[in-house]
From TrEMBL:
Domain of life: Bacteria
Record-linked Gene3D superfamilies: Aspartate Aminotransferase, domain 1, Type I PLP-dependent aspartate aminotransferase-like (Major domain)
EC number: 4.1.2.48
Full protein name: L-threonine aldolase
Record-stated family: Belongs to the threonine aldolase family.
Length: 344
């Protein structure tokens, strides 16, 4: 019997995956140089260069908010602006950190279906004003996977890139759930990043099962000049960096990161199928990664909460269920059995 709880509230309610935990224990032997000058960090950075098939610059920070805010700050002057979807994490969930670290770069909000920026609206934001009273658009930030659990197909990224590249606008990717996107697309990480115009990727470690680490990957190395200083000033230079990089080293070996992401995606599919079969329940977005957004009946929603299930409520009455490396089929079945029972 699975006890209802917060297993579907967020991918962050899961703990640290056993491999990452073991990697930290291994890094805990002996003494090593601090601030990233250690063999674990060198190896993890090389593995990321191999994974992306290019000579990129890699930095490790503690949170996704720091990764996004510092990456965007390195692409913008204070009088520039960043275009992002109106539901983007950088706009809705970072407490103004991108604006703060860039000393005031404004976020301009693009519309678009299913959490994805619409290229026509992006171009409108770029071209509607050229005068110096308007913050000059300098970056397009896209989330992959999106805040609604949807995914930009490679062709959609290419369309966005084609739409902005003539305007000196950089492409930033918030990849807090990049692993889920790669697992779902079965595309090469290089194809859906730098080969599609992405110059900086914030690659999430925490949501895929690591502890307190995100990688900032610069494919355009001219943009990472002084990034180490930016990290240090923001309190994001990890003195015992080996405990972050050892986790990356371990999960990047033998595709473990993708195995965990695939598992989370598959359980989201299973949950979606089960919810769809319940009378009155409606999926709100196509399930392409590890999130399921559903409109439950008021009865089912209330009784699930009363039974102890925790999940976030989204605008329009939707409920969000997240799956992670730790979610099991039994968790999914227990939630579905309750939801089905409460619907009759
Ligand atoms: C979770 C998340 C982040 C990072 O959030 P932190 O809580 O700062 O680690 C960034 N972007 C998206 C889309 C996220 O879901």
């Amino acid at each position: 019997m699975i006890a209802p709880g917060c297993q579907f509230a967020s991918d962050n309610t899961a703990g640290i995956c056993p491999e990452a935990w073991e990697a930290m224990a291994e890094a805990n032997q002996g003494f090593h140089s601090s601030y990233g000058d250690d063999p674990f960090t060198r190896k993890a950075c090389d593995q990321l260069r191999d994974l992306f098939e290019t000579d990129c610059d890699v930095y490790f920070v503690f949170t996704g908010t720091a990764a996004n805010a510092l990456a965007l700050a390195s692409l913008c002057q204070s009088y520039h602006s960043v275009i992002a979807h109106q539901a983007a994490h950088v706009e809705t969930d970072e407490c103004g950190a991108p604006e703060f670290f860039s000393n005031g770069s404004k976020i301009l909000l693009a519309s678009g279906e299913a959490g994805k920026c619409d290229v026509v609206d992006v171009q409108r934001l770029i071209t509607q004003r050229k005068d110096l009273h308007y913050p000059k658009p300098k970056v397009l930030s896209v989330s992959q996977s999106t805040e609604f659990g949807t995914i930009y197909q490679p062709s959609e990224l290419q369309t966005l890139w084609d739409g902005v590249k003539g305007h000196c606008v950089h492409l930033h990717m918030d990849g807090a759930r990049f692993a889920n996107a790669v697992a779902s697309l079965d595309a090469s990480p290089a194809d859906i990043t730098w080969r599609s115009g992405v110059e900086v990727l914030c690659f999430g470690g925490t949501k895929m099962g690591m502890a307190m680490t995100e990688a900032v990957v610069f494919f355009n190395k001219s943009l990472s000049e002084d990034f180490s200083w930016r990290c240090k000033q923001a309190g994001q230079l990890n003195s015992k960096m080996r405990f972050a990089s050892a986790q990356w080293h371990r999960l990047l070996e033998n595709g473990l990161w993708l195995k965990h992401a695939r598992h989370a995606n598959e359980l989201a599919q299973s949950l979606a199928r089960g919810l769809q079969a319940i009378a009155g329940v409606q999926l709100l977005h196509e399930v392409q990664a590890n999130a399921v957004f559903a409109k439950l009946t008021p009865e089912v929603e209330t009784r699930l909460r009363e039974a102890g299930w925790k999940f976030y409520q989204f605008i329009g009455g939707g409920a969000r269920f997240m799956c992670s490396w730790k979610t099991t089929q039994a968790d999914v079945d227990a939630l579905l059995a309750d939801a089905a029972g409460f619907s009759v």
